[in-house]
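Structure (tokenized):
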């Protein structure tokens, strides 16, 4: 039954996440434009862009690039299915990390110096945020007694009341996960990187379209992680989670438009320091209570 639930959840996530992720990306562009004093594109502009990419002639350096990108998308969808079907949070973390590794391999497979630099920076980003993500899973296990996401809905109060420091740590590394400034070292959605665009420099057409869809799915999953901190066994649980997600997403857009890009050394050191202080201290306190 658990396997069947996961398969059904993965299928539903594969259908819904691209739609929700596309709307979030469109909302991101509109809010960013208003912050910059512009009108901005229509809400469905991300969909128009991806549709245009799929209409272009397929051109790639080698065939394996598209295979790696397809695998990255597949594992991103699987991670979302595991999470939203109430499955194992730790497994979800491992699967989404595997998706990132396939994406990195896709960039390396092109043998382009620009793409390889982007892949190296993407690897640094994974190494920066991964400790905090793992500590998040451990913290939820301490609070609920299980790695299952569904166990959070049996809590008498939101998990953020107990693991607030862990939430702040996840909030910090979320900027890296969402590829927002100041931590958009490997790939940025802003115009200043469109000529040499980091990890996707050699990707075009439908392959690049799959990358965009993968990012939409990832964003929905990461927002789900945020919402998990605010659910409990009460009737207003989901409403509170949605409000928290909306506030956090707006905060990430504000940060993206108000902070300049930093060097990778600062990103790496600060992410590990936050994981040690926020995640480590909170877990240590729970362990001795």
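Design, position by position:
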């Amino acid at each position: 039954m658990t396997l069947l639930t996961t398969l059904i959840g993965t299928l539903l996530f594969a259908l819904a996440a691209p739609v929700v992720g596309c709307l979030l990306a469109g909302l991101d562009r509109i809010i960013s434009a208003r912050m910059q004093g512009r009108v901005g594109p229509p809400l469905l502009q991300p969909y128009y862009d991806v549709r245009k990419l799929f209409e272009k002639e397929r051109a790639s350096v080698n065939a394996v690039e598209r295979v790696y990108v397809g695998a990255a998308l597949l594992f991103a969808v699987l991670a979302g299915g595991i999470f939203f079907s109430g499955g194992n949070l730790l497994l979800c973390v491992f699967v989404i990390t595997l998706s990132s590794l396939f994406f990195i391999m896709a960039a390396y497979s092109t043998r382009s110096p620009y793409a390889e630099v982007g892949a190296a920076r993407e690897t640094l980003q994974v190494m920066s945020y991964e400790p905090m993500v793992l500590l998040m899973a451990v913290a939820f296990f301490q609070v609920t007694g299980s790695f299952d996401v569904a166990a959070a809905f049996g809590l008498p109060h939101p998990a953020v009341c107990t693991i607030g420091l862990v939430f702040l740590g996840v909030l910090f590394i979320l900027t890296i996960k969402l590829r927002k400034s100041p931590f958009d070292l490997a790939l940025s959605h802003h115009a200043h990187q469109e000529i040499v665009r980091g990890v996707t420099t050699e990707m075009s057409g439908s392959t690049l379209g799959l990358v965009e869809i993968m990012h939409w799915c990832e964003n929905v999953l990461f927002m789900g992680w945020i919402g998990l901190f605010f659910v409990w066994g009460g009737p207003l649980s989901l409403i509170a989670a949605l409000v928290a997600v909306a506030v956090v997403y707006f905060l990430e857009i504000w940060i993206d438009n108000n902070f300049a890009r930093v060097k990778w050394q600062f990103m790496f050191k600060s992410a590990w320091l936050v994981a040690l202080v926020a995640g480590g201290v909170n877990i240590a306190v729970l362990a001795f209570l």
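Reviewer-requested clarification: The radius of gyration is 19 Å. The chain has one domain: 2-288.
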